[in-house]
Amino acid sequence: MIQSAVILAGGAGARMWPFAEVRNKCAMPVANLPNVRRLYEDLAALGVQRIVVVLGSHSGSIRHALLGVSPEPVFVDQPAGGGTAGAACVGLRSLPDERAVIVYGDVCVAPSDLRRVMDAPGETGCAGAVLVDQPAAEDGADWHVVSLENGRLARIVGHDAGARLRWSGIAVVGPGFARVLDANPGRMMAVPVGGMPPMEPDFAQSLNDWPAEIVAVHAERPVVDMDKPWHVLQANMAVAERLTSELGENRIHPTARVHDGADIAGCISVGAGSEIGKRVVIEGPAIVGDDTRIVNGAILRGSNIVGSRTRLSDYCLVDPHTVVGSDCIVGHGAEMSGVMFDGSYLYHYCEISGLVGASVDIGAATVCGTLRFDDRDAEHRVRGRRERPGAFANASYFGDHSRTGVNVITMPGAKIGAYSCVGAGIVVYEDVPSRTLLLLKQETVTRPWGPDRYGW
Q1: Quick one: 98 exposed, middle or buried, by C-beta within 10 A (0-12, 13-18, 19+)?
Q2: Integer distance in angstroms from the first to the last C-alpha of the chain?
Q3: What is the pLDDT of residue 221?
Q4: 173 in Cβ contact with 209 (< 8 Å)
Q5: Exposed, middle or buried, 382 (CB in 10 Å: 0-12/13-18/19+)?
Q6: Burial class of residue 301, CB neighbours in 10 A (0-12, 13-18, 19+)
Q7: Which tens digits make up the pLDDT trace of 141-172?
Q8: CATH number at 4-227
């Protein structure tokens, strides 16, 4: 049984703009829980007794996300220039033995698959194990892909276009592996012809160099490596589907109130002090936190997760698999499809489709365009690279602590940076940089007018 783990939570998350400016991407909320905490609690529930967390960028967000967890984590700092291999090595050296599961902290994985990869070495007699999957809408050129021989890992290749089997960022390692990490060549050597790996020690290269038998475990549930903003939407919706589908019966706290006039289909979980009011429609399973009010005709389309101290009211519409955070408001006639982080507000007649960061203030009648005139997916720029995501390309992305004025329209794929404001009446065609105020320059014509114009 694996009793030790290392969570790698030090990356800068440059591809996650605009959502990694206020937090480490491993602290990104998934179903209203920071992903690193979800991983930590899942590992602890599987019997892991020693967990080392390797810190780097925005380390405070990781420490805060893990406040109060048990067992108490051991925090170590990622060495400068050490890459993922250096991070794994310093984490592994902090444990009493080298048999451990190494998990990238931005990977969203079901506990059942985590258990299967941890159990695999003992069941097969192999020294190690890796979790692999086949992402439905991603290109192998964006990931570390794997080749297998008789169910065993043959090789991990960096960013090989056309490959369909991906390493998920989870591996079980054993004695001798730390020495292999120490000897990492400083770059990913297994690349396609013409491949251009950065000069950064890569953990996957050390898996290739380890002279041990490594069994490959195929994931049965979706695995999401949260590298870019649309992956956050994928992760949240996958977890919302999983958690709500596991509700076999209603779980209503004794202090919660569910009005007889609410129309509810499917099982619901309702936290302490919360209220489901009359004329509310819930069309499928839903999980509601504490002290939340869903009242006056609010409509939830099912497989929804709603946080604590939130209000959904006045005939708002929440689409299937949408996750709404804590301390949020979705008000009169507002429509939400996607994910809202904590503390965000949607008021009158908004139509929002995408990812809304923390403490975002969406002005009345702000609308997200979701369909281009050419019916194609929007093109995104990620660190200068042109990309068309396989999912959520046409969503809009509102960075943390941003604001919009009334009647703002975002075109498909638009991103608004963190700490930015978009003034009233603007159509956002291009990404708005962080810490930017965007105002509409208006020309007006002033002429004399009065009763004489009407013949008086």
Answers
A1: middle
A2: 94
A3: 95
A4: no
A5: middle
A6: middle
A7: 788 999 999 999 999 998 887 777 999 999 99
A8: 3.90.550.10
CA-to-CA distance for 199 and 187, rounded, in angstroms?
5
If we measure between CA atoms, which residue out of 391, 330, 310 comes closest to residue 138? Answer: 391
CB 415, CB 433: distance < 8 Å: no
Alpha helices in 131-284 (DSSP H): 177-182, 203-209, 229-245
Helices (H) and strands (E) in the chain, counts: 7, 41
Token code pair at residue 42 = 């899942």
Class of domain 241-438: mainly beta
Which residue's entry shows tokens 């002279």? Answer: 211
Q: What is the CA radius of gyration of the chain?
A: 24
DSSP assignment letter at 139: -
Q: Is 74:51 a contact under the CB 8 Å cutoff?
A: yes
How far apart CA 289 and CA 69 sit, in angstroms, is 20
Determine the Cα–Cα distance for residues 115 and 120; give it in Å rounded to an integer: 9
- Beta-strand ranges (E) seen in 159-303 are 166-173, 214-218, 224-225, 251-252, 257-258, 263-264, 268-270, 275-276, 281-282, 286-288, 293-294, 299-300
3-state secondary structure of 427: strand
Query: How far is residue 296 from each of residues 192, 302, 330, 336, measured CA to CA in Å?
Result: 58, 18, 12, 17
What are 418-452's pLDDT values in tens digits?
999 999 999 999 999 999 999 999 899 999 999 99
Span 167-224, pLDDT tens digits: 999 999 999 999 999 999 999 999 988 889 999 999 999 999 999 999 999 999 999 9
Q: How many CA atoms lie within 13 A of 100 on its CB side?
A: 26
d(CA 121, CA 345) in angstroms, rounded, equals: 48
Q: Name the residue ranges covered by the structural domains of the chain.
A: 4-227, 241-438
Nearest to 367 by CA among 351, 353, 348, 356: 351
Q: What is the pTM of this model?
A: 0.95
Tell me the C-alpha to C-alpha distance, in Å, between residue 135 and each of 13, 31, 220.
21, 20, 11
